[in-house]
């Protein structure tokens, strides 16, 4: 092995002045002939006269990029004169860190912007924190009614959620301060050993460092983020703390937005609850079915089941003028008025007359409604009698057992326009399996079809209903909804209200058409067994 | 004191025949009594749902396709099965231990029973289930997701013409950060189109959906946001009314038998033309000719069962094709169907 002549002092000085690490090697023995200070800093094992060791790839490769002793290094090999080559080594640690940070923050940006659900956002926050900032992460929300909601992710576990009493918050150093919105306390001042078991279970082993960061929200803190690194020697550096603060600012904004959405949608849900179609009561001897996904404001229906000694069921379906919140409020008033009138046992026609007075008396113009009100009563032989009154509304349709469709002859003027109303109620009777359909004109006026502009129309409705003979009420409403939706070709179908009343079909008494097989020997035996065990118990 | 243990009866052909007879008679009380009795005898609810109610539902579909049942009868039987399913579901299940899931049928998808059966199977498996019903408008679904924050969404689509809507719903669900499992024949053989639309998983039956959701859910992070549909799709959807009107105007010239059609026959021919355009649009949207050729094959079977000769469908295809000569994907798809 031969060493080249010692470099001149000037050459040595030039090499030392270079920003990159430089390592001059001989091509035969791959030993280090010359190294500047930067090269010695980045590759401490490179010693003059010794073979090249360190992050370098096998002979033949001309470049590398890797993690080496805590740094990100990149190097390029250049042949110098055939017998010598040099490695030029760059420290890219800082650059890699910046790229990682911006990639992390980009991921934080899109993942936190996706959900408006508080629980989901909290889950995303701890997942992101564990992927990039710490071994364990926990989000704690400010106490509400003396309890704090939390979400936690421990190493190698699934996300956990729960609540804890407010008094326990003081167990974690710095947590109450963070929840009050004070600036974060540097990690080195927090002793992880003081962390309670509910935060960091003992089986996780020693925790080297803990960081508690406030999550800033809308004018008030949205919560606090607790991070921990495991292993006795773990620390949070200044840069880690700075990144955690940037992350916390975004996480806090996302949690605050979701909290706001939750509060507003909860308020809206309470207001809407009185406006949505009701859950239909189950009434012996009367089948009821209504359309779903009704848009709020506009069309509505309601059913008031038998109350006290009043065995009638009152049904109503209508269409208030206008749309949006104003229509919704009017709908609510109409339904409330009907509820009251039903308690004083008003007849359908009387209900409409009173409603007319109520709307006129409200002193506001153009608050009118078209509607059908009916009183449903069971009569003998499984039949149902309906007394129906309409005010400016399409007449209900009756589907007879043989598939005939009739329009009920009730007549009446618009409700809420004229001081005097002309209402002529009608009575229909339904035999077993027969059905009466109340609907809004959204159904017949649905625009669509093959040409895209045609009204669905009454003829089509009559034909579609005739095809439904024998179907249960729910199936009829669903089938008509489907036909209307197909007609609209996916257009808005949520202003179509339907309510069907049916006298249940009689259960076939005989084995009709021989289609039903003989009674199973098993089931007969089973029934016998049933009786026996009941008798014994 | 307990009754002597009796082995739970297997769900055999005798039971399925009996159940089919009950639903075909719209005998709701009888159907409910039968499933109640099976439940009391120790038949697991899952088996009642899958082997009795589900299997019968498939039979009913076949009976309709073979023109043995009318649509009305099919709907009535399905309504009875819904009630029988509700009766099975009324029995208490264990504690919800798995998480929360939202189930919905895609907008315009009215076959609600398969999704309802899946809802019950998931409930039995320990999920907290929100079932939103048949034909759920996209914005209702997304509002629900923001308000409840479920761990998964299951979307059902049995008809390929609803795939563009399904794609919109999947994309919107993913935008809220909730993983999606797709289900139903609409997503193609092996659920091929589900992956193309960005769903995280697909299941061909209720039981496989339950198994899929029970293990390592969600499996893979999906990050690509697929873009589907192109200007041919847009054209087909926009000009649907004109395509149908023109085809109907030329029908008698191309198919003289149509001269004697009754109003009802004409109306159903208009509907069939609409189906041709809709399935064609779906095939173009997804980029799969098979969606269209499957449709024509199936329609040929259905029409044959109703005494309509195959040439009628072929005439319809040609009348639509003649109007689309500037659209290579549409022409290629129609040609592929006419070779069959």
TrEMBL record, chain A:
Domain GAF: 117-265
SMART domains xref list: GAF, PP2C_SIG
Pfam families registered for this protein in UniProt: SpoIIE (PF07228)
Residues annotated as domain PPM-type phosphatase: 283-503
Coiled coil: none
Keywords, in A-Z order: Hydrolase
Database matches in InterPro entries: Bact_Sigma-Reg (IPR052016), GAF (IPR003018), GAF-like_dom_sf (IPR029016), PPM-type-like_dom_sf (IPR036457), PPM-type_phosphatase-like_dom (IPR001932)
Protein name: Serine/threonine-protein phosphatase
Organism expressing this protein natively: Actinoplanes flavus
Classification of source organism: Bacteria, Bacillati, Actinomycetota, Actinomycetes, Micromonosporales
